[in-house]
Fold this sequence. Notes:
Layout: H1 2-41, H2 44-61, H3 78-110, H4 118-137, H5 141-164, H6 169-188, H7 204-210, H8 213-240, H9 242-255, H10 257-274, H11 286-322, H12 327-335, H13 337-346, H14 350-355, H15 359-409, H16 415-419
Helix pairs in contact: 1-5, 1-10, 1-11, 2-4, 2-6, 2-8, 2-9, 3-4, 4-6, 5-6, 8-9, 8-15, 9-12, 10-13, 11-12, 11-13, 12-15, 13-15
Amino acid sequence: xxxxxxxxxxxxxxxxxxxxxxxxxxxxxxxxxxxxxxxxxxxxxxxxxxxxxxxxxxxxxxxxxxxxxxxxxxxxxxxxxxxxxxxxxxxxxxxxxxxxxxxxxxxxxxxxxxxxxxxxxxxxxxxxxxxxxxxxxxxxxxxxxxxxxxxxxxxxxxxxxxxxxxxxxxxxxxxxxxxxxxxxxxxxxxxxxxxxxxxxxxxxxxxxxxxxxxxxxxxxxxxxxxxxxxxxxxxxxxxxxxxxxxxxxxxxxxxxxxxxxxxxxxxxxxxxxxxxxxxxxxxxxxxxxxxxxxxxxxxxxxxxxxxxxxxxxxxxxxxxxxxxxxxxxxxxxxxxxxxxxxxxxxxxxxxxxxxxxxxxxxxxxxxxxxxxxxxxxxxxxxxxxxxxxxxxxxxxxxxxxxxxxxxxxxxxxxxxxxxx
Length: 420
């Protein structure tokens, strides 16, 4: 009987992950195929501006709901989920307004209009995250997969259209905002947690206090993780110019695509399983720790050919696909190969510490990792340009992720599990 009970969650996790993976693969296929066309419609400078804007917008969007949306899968009662939803929407409105004002100031500073899209980008990014976690709580995996197709494929098609219209960097900036708005609309249909008429809802302050670990611990974690990308692009642009920032942005966009595809699918399927007991309890269950080990092992095997292929063919593939002007992005890809492989394994695992009540530990570790990344990047840029930065980042992150994987694989069990 126990063996049957253990097998069912495994089949459920596999089926959910495969559904999301199929949708994600379809969503990512078109953007990757259109990439060579985009690099011929836009200059490296255009891409540099776009990636800088996207990094800032993502930095704000990931914390636009103060990460309260990630508590939705932990809410066992519909009333609690509804209260979380309302809380997130109010926080999102304030953050979006602040981003709009910031975008106006940014536009005045650079004397260009593309920063004016910062407010809408943050608003739709936060709304998409909220709708996605509500759909995750309801385990609406097919809808999540369809929304991912709209988000990524729609953005690339709109960027191509803007490129033909010679919209420049502003076209690159606006297209993903429109695609995310469409994906949010799809997820939002029926995603609002519903309660029976007359059911009392927990107060917003009570809900905020109950899930305070998310804004206090997960928000700085997510914000600093996104800030790493913003600081990296700003540092590269300042030292080597916007074209170099374009090389960095394009390389990481393609190199992290497999991690985005697989990571989001696995994490959205894994999180509800690890969080099935409700609110986070300190420590892992034996079944949960075993599942995490299996996920790490399978992803590590999948990452090996990716790393080897980049070491062997990186510069030639980038030059062939994107044009001679982008060969430096391929040299950078070769240097970043080890980091990319490790990131591929780590990408789905951020939800593990949420489910195991270890967000404080995850925040401390992330701070060290982000510091190591930025220091390695700066040292590599000074010593050997973009390629030197790639090799320095790969070495530093190999040490960091090695420690991270070992800690998750040996995570202490909950007291009730340890005594069983």
